[in-house]
UniProtKB/TrEMBL annotation:
Native source organism of the sequence: Neophocaena asiaeorientalis asiaeorientalis (Yangtze finless porpoise)
Gene3D superfamilies reported in the protein's UniProt record: Medium-chain alcohol dehydrogenases, catalytic domain, NAD(P)-binding Rossmann-like Domain
Protein name: 15-oxoprostaglandin 13-reductase
GO cellular component: mitochondrion
Taxonomic placement: Eukaryota, Metazoa, Chordata, Craniata, Vertebrata
Gene Ontology MF term list: 15-oxoprostaglandin 13-reductase [NAD(P)+] activity
Length: 316
């Protein structure tokens, strides 16, 4: 295995960081351990024959456990060359590929289908909205503010729903009486129940997370499990989970496609560096804690990214 040592410039924050740190993904991992899943930076050292693929100073993106670090060692085979060290490329590593692969493999999108995206202005939601619109679907997106509604409209979202100003269930029942064909769901709890109720006949609900339950002791989000089978049976509807690690065979092709879309101007990669947070931008590893709190307070628009000052990496 050929290894590269990367100097991290930007690292991504994900809702699942809490699941990992709580031991829900791998209970065998004991503290202390490194957290974080993704980063963008430069190659600072090469191992074995990795010099055949990379050069020192090259811009790279990588998805690897323990990415909340100033330096990260990653197998050369999993590193992805990018044109520049920009946080926009980081948005694609987990969030973009999750939306792309899940909708492609499970969504069966086609023109005219009605697609509901929950947490639509978040890190993965922004991509689900855009990809569904690329497939000529009618897209509904839930969010928590008028500012996020405006952002969703800028992405082409046909019907943003600010759940702090409108009741999601009432809107869906009144404006979409025949239901929605596909739901891209990442919230869980009451939102999951509303989404199930809104499914059309033969509708599909894709669960990519349940952030409302990640901070509970068990990590479980309450759903109406007693009534769920009957509701699905009545509509010939389905609920299917999606976990990116189970689709890694599709990962590189998805990244290549998304990179081309971004470079050609077909894809918006919204980054939130915390500029509007109470304590300012997320700078340095010590700000990861603030960034996670910011996400769980539903403050972010787009992907939350932490910047690591370049001066930190001037020398090994």
């Amino acid at each position: 295995m050929y290894l590269c040592l990367f100097s991290s410039r930007f690292v991504g924050v994900n809702a699942s960081d809490i699941n990992y740190s709580a031991g829900r993904y791998d209970p065998s991992v004991k503290t202390p351990f490194d957290a974080g899943f993704e980063g963008v930076g430069e190659v600072v050292a090469l191992g074995l024959s990795s010099s055949a693929t990379f050069t020192v100073g090259q811009a790279v993106a990588y998805m690897a456990p323990g990415s909340f670090a100033e330096y990260t060692v990653v197998p050369a085979s999993t590193a992805i060359p990018v044109p520049a060290v920009k946080p926009e490329y980081l948005t694609l590593l987990v969030s973009g590929t999750t939306a792309y692969i899940s909708l492609k493999e499970l969504g069966e999108l086609s023109e005219g289908r009605k697609v509901l995206v929950t947490a639509a202005a978040g890190g993965t939601g922004q991509f689900a909205v855009q990809l569904a619109k690329k497939a000529k679907c009618h897209v509904i997106g839930t969010c928590s503010s008028d500012e996020k509604s405006a952002f969703l409209k800028s992405l082409g979202c046909d019907r943003p729903i600010n759940y702090n100003g409108e009741h999601v269930g009432a809107v869906l029942k009144q404006e979409y009486p025949r239901g929605v064909d596909v739901v891209y769901e990442s919230v869980g709890g009451a939102m999951f129940d509303l989404a199930v109720d809104a499914l059309a006949t033969k509708g599909r609900l894709i669960v990519i997370g349940f952030v409302s339950g990640y901070q509970t002791p068990t990590g479980l989000s309450p759903v109406k499990a007693v009534t769920l089978p009957a509701k699905l049976l009545k509509k010939s509807a389905s609920v299917q989970g999606f976990f990116l690690n189970h689709y890694l065979s599709k990962y590189r092709a998805a990244m290549d496609h998304l990179l081309k879309m971004y470079e050609s101007g077909e894809l918006v990669c919204k980054v939130d560096l915390g500029g509007l947070s109470a304590e300012g931008r997320f700078t340095g590893l010590e700000s990861v804690f603030r960034a996670v709190d910011y996400m769980y307070m539903r403050k972010n628009t787009g992907k939350i990214v932490v910047e690591l000052p370049h001066s930190v990496h001037s020398k090994l």
